[in-house]
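Hello,

Following up on my earlier ticket. Below are the three sequence lines again, exactly as submitted.
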Amino acid sequence: MSLLVFEPRGVVAFFSDFGVRDHYVGVVKGRILKELEEWDGHSLEIKFIDITHEIPPQDVRKGALLLKFSYKYFPKGTIFLGIVDPGVGTERRALLIATPKYLFVGPDNGLFTFVLREQEPCYAYEIDVKKVIKFPYSSTFHGRDLFAPVVAKLLLREKIETFAKPIEKEKLVYLDFPYPLKIEEGFRLSIWYVDHFGNLITNFSKELADKPFEVWVNNKRVRLVSTYAEGREGEIVSLFGSEGLLEIAIKNGSAFEVLGYPEIEIRYSKGL
Amino acid sequence: MSLLVFEPRGVVAFFSDFGVRDHYVGVVKGRILKELEEWDGHSLEIKFIDITHEIPPQDVRKGALLLKFSYKYFPKGTIFLGIVDPGVGTERRALLIATPKYLFVGPDNGLFTFVLREQEPCYAYEIDVKKVIKFPYSSTFHGRDLFAPVVAKLLLREKIETFAKPIEKEKLVYLDFPYPLKIEEGFRLSIWYVDHFGNLITNFSKELADKPFEVWVNNKRVRLVSTYAEGREGEIVSLFGSEGLLEIAIKNGSAFEVLGYPEIEIRYSKGL
Amino acid sequence: MSLLVFEPRGVVAFFSDFGVRDHYVGVVKGRILKELEEWDGHSLEIKFIDITHEIPPQDVRKGALLLKFSYKYFPKGTIFLGIVDPGVGTERRALLIATPKYLFVGPDNGLFTFVLREQEPCYAYEIDVKKVIKFPYSSTFHGRDLFAPVVAKLLLREKIETFAKPIEKEKLVYLDFPYPLKIEEGFRLSIWYVDHFGNLITNFSKELADKPFEVWVNNKRVRLVSTYAEGREGEIVSLFGSEGLLEIAIKNGSAFEVLGYPEIEIRYSKGL
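Thanks for your patience. The regenerated structure is below:
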């Protein structure tokens, strides 16, 4: 197993369910900077980029999806810090995942499911909590007392082996994100994500579309368009969104408000 | 038409209707940094300043006002990235606007109305999408696939002419922000903006007040004070706010919750 | 009285009740950078860390608590800018507080109560508004027109004495955060803070627990656990949180939603 060969450039992309009403997000960042205090921080350029901190509390699935939608757009060397951690303080593992381009830090609860599936090569390490955590520490705020110091160690280019040991990827926790259900003449889709605009993002990706098809929502056919604006005011439309997944949308409106979680099907077009 | 003469210092002021619940804001920033990846990013100091991402979805008017209230307070060389873009993916133009102090990037839908009116000289360019966008790209997320690369080009000091061409300002889209309506003995005001504190910000500016006047809300006279704290608990007051516009406020309360969108009039004081 | 001996490293930790819907937070940051414009900003590494801007409007108590929960985790040299300022524009003092590790800037209304109590040595200065503010300025937005320039002066290492004068700490405004109420067989607690997860953070700290005790909520005993996950689904539990204060929590749920502000008591355990 080879070690990382890139030099971290100091971009820390942070996502969590901490919300922005409390002090948690700021304290984690403060703690990372504090860990670098002794060291000449002036020559290390650290940039915190918040992906989001409004993941619904303890919704690990949503965290995993948001990371999937995000990480490929970040520069080489980015360290992703992901904290959606209902098991904080229990025996759940603390993970470090390394690919040739990126590092990922967070709990072992499925948050990194897509990274582990999509990235090859991809190495997993179990963080040795005793080698990182300092007394006094909190069993309820590992973001501050465990994961922040790990990020600092990575920024300082400490050898991973000094605070973590390799673990087989098969032993990690994965979440199940099933493919669309095959039905007689097409697929029944699941809604993976509802965004801020009320667009319903499904699990149907462009690549699955091997022959002409129609999109049906609650048993009514909807048009497949290529931009949100193509719809008529109030029309329910479908389109492939920015991650290549089929979305249900309404022009200048919220599909979620109108439809909630509707039944969505792909039906193969019938020749005449 | 002269070119820019300043060197961008790497401040990117970003405002949008993306919200902070999803990954969109983080991904745009990640993409800007990724575009600089090949290049020696360590010596370029980039600072992202979020103005807000909570503009109501597709509310271009509110975006234009927020930019008006903000841009003059940023340092020379700031690049403003504004994305409220209901027409994403359609034929609407992508704009770059340059003044001797600032650069502005975003869709041509009126978002830059005030900049275009207030800044002189002020040059407009239409971005040549084909010269910026890379395959594969999304027709629904131009923030990531079009505007982020443009910002990166500006940070790298690429010549604007290599990816955009001058366009006459008269051809651009403007929003109409009318002056207060002249009535017999004064003005009838419009509410331009309701802020987080519930203050009602009107379109009446200090400069229009050429003679003594009174402020009337729903046909009752209210006091004109100079600080929020001057009001009595629960009293409706008026004052000129931080942008010189008349506001209706309630001490330690929300004028919007109490009044909604009331009728507001300026009436000239009558001599005795 | 000695002067500061550390060199500010350019971390500005910012908390306020400005919210993230408006432009206020971005404008304050822009103004700080603009003040440094004349100066060679490239060699000064400034990092803005937002603690939170979602303090409820004018809730100075909550601001004081959030600062207490946060500041110790930031690196030496951090400048804390705190703006929850219902008295903006009135005669309330503008403060600068200096400790050997940190600087604090904001209104004199109790926002810095805990810092003043917990830090020794700790010097207070009254900012001379006339020496900082430039015309035109707003009497409603001191974040932009008064406090931002003060932060810039600190970053530029201007001597504090040139724009502020020492003031006795006894003259400052303090908020009252009382200890738990002593009752016959224990303590009656107050709830200091409800966080985003719905955890109820009380005023009972570990150090007060001098003998074995039980936690009672609305006259029912609840278990004292050490992690959130130890509870059974839906069980009300108590635990010492990340700041050493007793919290009431519900596993995978919101204690606040279920309990609101319940009566919480510490009762000494009775021997058998």
